[in-house]
Predict the structure.
Amino acid sequence: MEPNRELERDYAIIGSGITGMSVAKSLLERHPSATITIFEARTLCSGATGRNGGQMAANVGEEYAHLADAHGPEMAGKIVSFTFHNLQKMQELIKEYDAEELSEMQRLKKLRAFLTEDSFEGFQKSIARLESDHPSWKGLYTILDKETLIKVGELMFGRYVVKLTDVRNMASTEQQGEPCFLQEPCGPIDSSRRSSPTSSRSPNRLTIETHTPVESVQNDSSFITPTTSVFPYTIQTPRGPSRVANVVYCTNGYSGHLIPELRGHIHPFKGTMTVQDPGNSVPNQGQHLSWGFHYPPTYDPTTKESGYGLYYLGQSAKTGYFYFGGENTRIEDAVSADDSFVGSNSVLHLQSVLPKFFGQRPGSQWKLVSSWSGIMGFSADGLPLIGRLSSSLTGRNGKGEWIAAAFNGYGMANCLMCGDALVSMILGEGSNEWLPGAYELSESRLQNTLATSESISALTPKL
Ligand SMILES: Cc1cc2nc3c(=O)[nH]c(=O)nc-3n(C[C@H](O)[C@H](O)[C@H](O)COP(=O)(O)OP(=O)(O)OC[C@H]3O[C@@H](n4cnc5c(N)ncnc54)[C@H](O)[C@@H]3O)c2cc1C
């Protein structure tokens, strides 16, 4: 690989996932002259963004009661508005870039089914509280009882009703259509420099360096020269150094690598997806429905495997294949930043579970079309971290290091607007009006709700 010329850029963005792309897009659109380089360790979107389950959905309904307890109803309502507004913006962006067909975006209802009475009751209470605190959200969710579910099921599946022996309780549909964005994980993208529609609108201001892992970041402002006073940070990569004025970490589950002080506050979490072909055994509902199956977290002391409480699936409207994910794995396999292999137990588990939900006899397996794993970023309080990194976190002087990370498996509902909100902070415009204050990175959050002990407790299997 040829050494890179020494670049001088206003902004280095580390990570080319949806968050890095959002930050780049906002900077290009809102700053008249900013020069930007995106550094990506592998290929474009090779992190969680290119490996996810494709559900453009929010989890704020089931989380509302918890959010209101932790942050008060006003902030909880702001989080609900933020996530649904973000989903709306995602759709607009896909339309703006004429990518509806390419992305296979569909407007769907999401059918959430609850496998125990308790989890269903908890969900109902959460929705009731959301509607009472914020009447404008009434009608977002429709609660179905078992009988209606059967009718809806019969209507939607013919004889292929979601099995009520498995779905012991009821389900709710989210009234507002939730689009589903189906995709295969990114294949390798060869070129190490690429342009994008955004960059062609702003020629010469954006470069994207793929296959270029950032190995370290230094601040050289103690040696005052004309260069270090404007570009105090050195980004070290195998292709050579670059000097930049600001560093923006969009590294999500990998953030602890370059910022060790964040380890424990944010942790990686490995997720696995399968694509399964049901053949002719169920009709294709890919244009109408996606599904979530909720159950209380489980722990099996014999296998040491934990079930994390959710299976999610969508169906390709084109092929009828199911895109099915959900974790049931050992904690040491889940808390991992290594997506170079797919956990075979995870795949076997997903293959054994899915056909049962659609009424197939136990032991049935559908053809595995594809499977992959990806790394998410999780935080103990379940909320993203957006803001300026302090010197105590970076170990460096300077005020030019920023982060947007920890989307807790719900990037589609958060990343786009979090990237834009971070740009408001970077440009000195203060907090974006949409951004919930609870997402902002603060010392007190790090010491309290994001303390390592809280992360351990959140990960500890509850029996
Ligand atoms: C299996 C799975 C299923 C999911 N399903 C859904 C879903 O259905 N709906 C939903 O909303 N969300 C889902 N998610 C989560 C969603 O994909 C993420 O929240 C979102 O993609 C995060 O985007 P990001 O840009 O912040 O991070 P990423 O896409 O992970 O991007 C970070 C990038 O940083 C790069 N990087 C890291 N360190 C360095 C370095 N030192 N130098 C250079 N580059 C570096 C990485 O290579 C990576 O490309 C899923 C995730 C997984 C793994």
In short: The longest strand covers residues 367-379. The domain at 105-182+267-377 is CATH 3.30.9.10 (D-Amino Acid Oxidase; Chain A, domain 2).
